[in-house]
Design a protein that fits this description.
Elements (H helix, E strand, L loop, with lengths): L1 E6 L20 H5 L5 E4 L9 H10 L5 E5 L2 H6 L3 H11 L1 H5 L3 E7 L8 H13 L5 E4 L8 H10 L2 E2 L1 E3 L17 E6 L11 H4 L6 H5 L2 H10 L2 E6 L6 H16 L1
Amino acid sequence: MIKIGTSGYSFLDWKGVFYPENIEKGKMLDFYAKHFDTVEINSTYYRIPHPAVFYRLTEKTPEDFEFIVKTHQDITHIRKSIETSAQNLKEAIRPLAETAKMHGFLAQFPGAFRKSKPNLDYLKKCRELFSDFPLFVEFRHKSWMEEEIFDFLKNQNIGFCCVDEPQLESLVPPIARATTGVGYVRFHGRNKAGWWKGMKDRYDYLYNENELRGWIEKIKGLRGATEKMYLFFNNCPQGQAVKNAQVMKKLLEEAG
């Protein structure tokens, strides 16, 4: 089973590109769910909402729709008050859990979070905090790309998040590995020139078909090693994530 979606959905610059020009923001997820069966909720990195927000999301999506929720920055970047942050986030997503639409947390760590004994211990702590749910970890520094780390993640039942991003010196290469029964890939784009400029430019990239085709064999390998896979496109500016997600769907259907 391969589920394809985007990293967020409520972008105003998707109007006229994916959404109808006159769509209300509150109707975006209803429309999105007619085209995709999963989504990453990234807004929780900035602010943990009231459970009523997630209750409304469950109401707008079909029974088989699946959510992955990003952990708050307290967990991954600030790394303080983590117990409180984790508890508040788990309370917020309770409506998703009650309807079986909650399928895991994504912890995206910054480049400054590098391989070390204290940071390995911290990952264990994160696994404990989210023990009731699947946990996927995305690294932004290549120091983690060692066999012992993949073994560690397997032993801790933490999913490794594969990434496609610019091949800059410190970043993670496009390694296709799975450390649990669920494969996970995030496509960030390959904007080398804009990566260090800030969030506005970092993910502004449209993959061409050949670039996406280069992932087909990797995805096939991951599919053979897992029970389920998620492919999320995070190159969201101007609806590029939607365009590439749709192309990837087509390529995988053609590949069989």
